[in-house]
Design goal:
Elements (H helix, E strand, L loop, with lengths): L3 H15 L4 E3 L11 E14 L2 E16 L4 H10 L7 H6 L10 E15 L2 E13 L1
């Protein structure tokens, strides 16, 4: 049986394979020394009863810390991470392997947003956030 750690590690692998130059943390790190960086955080998990049995639907948040809020290019970069296509599209990376290498039945992005200012460590950053549903 696939564990939550396995699922998050698979999500990390899929995103890093599809988005070059993005460091992905499958667990909240004590520090981030290089940007851009994505952090995967569990939000909740629900059991869904179907005709074939019970499925688990887990919601996770992926926060992509792009750059300091003082960096004007950060806003455009954040929008590119949110694009449906392109070499830095988180959605395109997940859509290219929605089963996360067979670890889950399906993973899909539900929502995206740009957080204008989020404190992390010693700075304030532009952050692209994604809500992802993982079915297994």
């Amino acid at each position: 049986m696939t564990t939550q750690t396995d699922v998050f590690d698979s999500l990390k692998t899929v995103i890093e394979a599809g988005v070059s130059g993005l460091r992905v943390y499958p667990r909240v790190p004590s520090s981030v020394n290089e940007l851009p960086a994505a952090i995967i955080v569990p939000v909740n998990r629900d059991a869904v009863i179907t005709m074939g049995g019970t499925l688990s639907m887990q919601t996770v948040r992926i926060s992509v810390y792009v750059a300091s809020v003082d960096n004007e290019q950060a806003w455009e970069t954040a929008q590119n991470y949110q694009g449906a296509t392109g070499s830095v599209s988180i959605q395109a990376a997940i859509d290219s392997n929605p089963t996360l290498g067979g670890a889950v039945d399906c993973a899909l992005i539900r929502t995206t947003e740009i957080v204008q200012r989020e404190a992390f460590g010693a700075g304030d950053y532009v952050v692209a956030e994604f809500t992802v549903e993982i079915w297994r």
